[in-house]
Amino acid sequence: RPLRPGLVLAALAMSDQKKVLHTADFDPRFTNQMQTMNCWTSYIEYHQCVAKNGDGHPSCTKFKQNFTSLCPTQWVEQWDEQRAEGKFPGPL
User: Fold this and answer.
1) Which of 14, 34, 69, 73 has a CA 20 to 30 Å removed from the CA of 21?
2) Helices 35-53, 73-84: inter-axial angle, 10-degree rounding
3) Secondary structure of the chain as H, E, C letters
């Protein structure tokens, strides 16, 4: 079955786009051995920032970049579910 030309062009356009990856900057509060705590703290600081300043606020961007770089996706999904259910154990 032949591919539709629109799908081929869309796939080519997507493959030409470059992703910009960010990693967390050095934080003197966390040594190299404490990256789990850095992940947890960045996640909490991001959601506290959003609660205070609103979603998409520029001052919250760095916190989001940090936790998305440091935290395993499965943890973030679980924490998001816990927040939605009102069962998140951290201070938000």
Assistant:
1) 34
2) 40
3) CCCCHHHHHHHHHHHHCCCCCCCCCCCCCCCHHHHHHHHHHHHHHHHHHHHHHCCCCHHHHHHHHHHHHHCCHHHHHHHHHHHHCCCCCCCC
Alpha carbon distance 51, 92 (integer Å): 8
- Other C-beta atoms lying within 10 Å of the C-beta of residue 50: 17
* Average pLDDT of the segment spanning 26-47: 85
Q: Are 63 and 42 a contacting pair, CB within 8 Å?
A: yes
Q: Would residue 86 be called left, alpha or beta, if left means φ above 0 and alpha means ψ between -120 and 50 degrees?
A: left
Q: Using alpha carbons only, how large is the chain's radius of gyration in Å?
A: 18
**pLDDT at residue 59 above 50?**
yes
